[in-house]
């Protein structure tokens, strides 16, 4: 049996390094990367991508578009970890737990776009509730999220771990133009009819995300409660290996959310809090795990299994 050839284009960034580390010891595939001298050589990269079975693009958006455009071999399949193709109609969204058919779509796809880290939490919370009609598609959604500094890529790691780390801002809200590139992705795959407000931030910890999304029960249909929202999430993700819904009594007992508790796992943990007509939906996960490299490897495994 011929082992599938997997080429990582851009294995020196935060996501690429993690994917490389996860795959380098596997015996069910042949892993290919380029030596340092050839990483920026267009011919070498084009030759490698056209000779592989599955390419994983861990590149800036423009470079990812160029890499995808360089593919001439129709048998080559692609997982793009950048945001270049996330809302493109010809690319399959790589969040296998999003809906019943998504896993099959990924397994048989030629082009898969890996979800963004923040959208993984937002879509993971919203999509089941909107599909079930428990949250209106035009609800005025606001999303607050804090990520570890590795979410900035190598620049973030250098900022907080380099020689000038003492001058790094310990907490910074950004995206103040209210036009973050993740907003169209969140809207499209959650099923919202209106743009959500998204307020991201970086903290002075390496990795991990906590994302929260407030709802007011008075703006939902009569009879919708935190318990019903929780039951919907529980039913949607029942049996999932990668998404867990914390029991409501366990959530209610919490006094804080540590964005790092799911680090070094590929799991997305969802929670529902309720009090006095207010509901808070929350997600905690590793921005380099389920939010990036872990999701890419999950998608790769589905594509290998699906042929």
Automatic annotation (TrEMBL):
GO terms for biological process: L-arginine biosynthetic process. Its main location: cytoplasm. Pfam families: Semialdhyde_dh, Semialdhyde_dhC_1. Its EC number is 1.2.1.38. GO terms for cellular component: cytoplasm. Belongs to the NAGSA dehydrogenase family. Type 2 subfamily. This is N-acetyl-gamma-glutamyl-phosphate reductase. It comes from Pseudomonas abietaniphila. The gene is argC.
């Amino acid at each position: 049996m011929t082992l599938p050839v997997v080429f990582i284009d851009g294995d020196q960034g935060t996501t690429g390094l993690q994917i490389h580390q996860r795959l380098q010891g596997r015996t069910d595939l042949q892993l290919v990367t380029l030596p340092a001298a050839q990483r920026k050589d267009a011919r070498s990269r084009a030759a490698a991508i056209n000779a592989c079975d599955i390419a994983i693009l861990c590149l800036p958006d423009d470079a990812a578009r160029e890499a995808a455009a360089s593919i001439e071999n129709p048998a080559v399949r692609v997982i793009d970890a950048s945001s270049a193709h996330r809302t493109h109609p010809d690319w399959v969204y790589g969040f296998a737990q999003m809906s019943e058919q998504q896993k099959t779509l990924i397994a048989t796809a030629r082009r898969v776009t890996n979800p963004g880290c923040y959208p993984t939490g937002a879509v993971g919370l919203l999509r089941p509730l909107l599909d079930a009609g428990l949250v209106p598609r035009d609800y005025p959604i606001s999303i607050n999220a804090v990520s570890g500094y590795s979410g900035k890529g190598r620049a973030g790691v250098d900022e907080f771990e380099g020689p000038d780390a003492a001058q790094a801002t310990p907490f910074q809200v950004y995206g103040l133009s209210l036009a973050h590139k993740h907003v169209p992705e969140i809207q499209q795959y959650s099923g919202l009819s209106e743009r959500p407000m998204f307020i991201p931030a970086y903290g002075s910890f390496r990795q991990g995300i906590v994302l929260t999304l407030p709802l007011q029960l008075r703006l939902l249909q009569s009879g919708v409660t935190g318990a019903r929202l929780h039951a919907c999430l529980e039913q949607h993700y029942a049996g999932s290996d990668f998404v867990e819904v914390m029991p409501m009594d366990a959530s209610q007992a919490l006094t804080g959310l540590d964005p790092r508790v799911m680090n070094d796992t590929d799991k997305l943990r969802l929670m529902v809090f309720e009090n006095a007509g207010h509901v808070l939906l929350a997600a905690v996960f590793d921005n380099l795990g389920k939010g990036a490299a872990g999701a890419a490897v999950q998608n790769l495994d589905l594509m290998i299994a699906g042929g």
